[in-house]
Amino acid sequence: xxxxxxxxxxxxxxxxxxxxxxxxxxxxxxxxxxxxxxxxxxxxxxxxxxxxxxxxxxxxxxxxxxxxxxxxxxxxxxxxxxxxxxxxxxxxxxxxxxxxxxxxxxxxxxxxxxxxxxxxxxxxxxxxxxxxxxxxxxxxxxxxxxxxxxxxxxxxxxxxxxxxxxxxxxxxxxxxxxxxxxxxxxxxxxxxxxxxxxxxxxxxxxxxxxxxxxxxxxxxxxxxxxxxxxxxxxxxxxxxxxxxxxxxxxxxxxxxxxxxxxxxxxxxxxxxxxxxxxxxxxxxxxxxxxxxxxxxxxxxxxxxxxxxxxxxxxxxxxxxxxxxxxxxxxxxxxxxxxxxxxxxxxxxxxxxxxxxxxxxxxxxxxxxxxxxxxxxxxxxxxxxxxxxxxxxxxxxxxxxxxxxxxxxxxxxxxxxx
Length: 417
Fold this sequence. Notes:
globular; 32% helix; FAD/NAD(P)-binding domain; six-stranded mixed β-sheet; alpha/beta; 11 helices; nine-stranded mixed β-sheet
């Protein structure tokens, strides 16, 4: 079977790897000069299985209302004359209903657990290096009022098969001594025991190299011009290279893994995907004092900010901004991340050498990614992962490969088609 994958980020590269492992002839195209250069480039670095609850949950509407009018709010709506944005927002509110949240949480948890297992197997099989860190994620709480929910949260996670521990401030500091400076204001933590972190961009580069060695054809600086389609289904894609030359790639199946741009690419086929771009920000800073740096990944639950150690650097990421496909950076959003770093780890890093980044997360209203068949024969999707693209990458790619090759995927998940 010949397969074309559109997109060389986490979703596209993992899809290509597992399709090739299944015996397919695979070509990957991307408009960038290399793999993992858009949404996968500088995300928060967390593989956060312990956070399966979607953004759309019963507490979200009241939380968002409290944030309205705050330019530094964790979630910022920039309302536009954009029907797709308004439709997405109303669908998001519908997904906040308790029954829908419960259903979506179970689906995300099933795929996340499967994905972590596939990542670990892939790491063992290939020896791939990507500044991986094990030991879990610490979800930090500074308000005692927030702690009353933790026993129920722990029980919910354990019921889903996800290990977690509720920690006192003393237990938290024993596990992560770098947090000693905030002892007076730390109320407690939830430790996602089996979570990990790692550099998603390095992973994309390393896995694409392994995939190329296995026979996957990567073509960069390529723009999709359209799909070759008949009444019988899809036959391939029309492309244009960096020198303007047109070409055709024949395929028995085509995978759209182009992040937030997936919806635009398939719109000419009459498909309307509930995927909207949510802009996220990060800063990456060199560590000056490694002995004082955290060794576990951290999540500040009240500010929705994450911190991951990637080798000799810290990655601080967070905030979500709904502003269409606008990729212009908002200096205030980056300043919020720098302020958090200065407040929590003063004099630990060289902030003057910070690498600032923002990218578009492809989010569905339910936070359930679109993985599987479309109504167009031969066309498949692997997109819409929102903030969980790194967490769900390997599981999504493996399940997608199973669907394309006619095998039943393992996770209990609402695959498309």
